[in-house]
Amino acid sequence: MAITDGEGGLEAEFELLMARHGITVPAEWRPGTYAGFVSLREQAATLHGVRDPHGEPAMVYRIPTGRADD
Q1: Sign of the alpha-carbon torsion through 6, 11, 12, 17
Q2: What is the rounded CA–CA span in Å between residue 17 and residue 33?
Q3: Is the pLDDT score of 10 beyond 60?
Q4: Which of 2, 4, 40, 55 could form a disulfide with 51 if both were Cys (CB 3.0 to 4.6 A apart)?
C-alpha cells in the first residue's frame, strides 16, 4: 500500500521501508534498488488483480477428471 501517490510518494515509501527495516542502501546501489522496488510493486499489483480463468497461465490449476492419474 502506497503512502502517497506519484513518483515522489514512491521515493518516500522506499526510504521509509528501508529505514523501518534498518537497511542502508549504498549510493551506487540506490538507482538499481529503487528501480527493483518500483518493479516489484507493479508486479504485486498485477498479481493481486482480478483475472478470469482465461487470463491465468497454463497449468496453474489442476481440474480432476476422474482418471486414475488425477
Answers
A1: positive
A2: 12
A3: yes
A4: 55
> Which sequence spans correspond to the domains of the chain?
7-47
- Whole-prediction pTM: 0.60
Q: What are the residue ranges of helices labelled H in the chain? A: 7-20, 30-47
Query: Could you give phi then psi for residue 32, rounded to 5 degrees?
Result: -70, -40
C-alpha cell at 43: 508486479
The pLDDT value given to residue 61? 66
The 8-class DSSP code of residue 54 comes to G
pLDDT at 47 over 70: yes
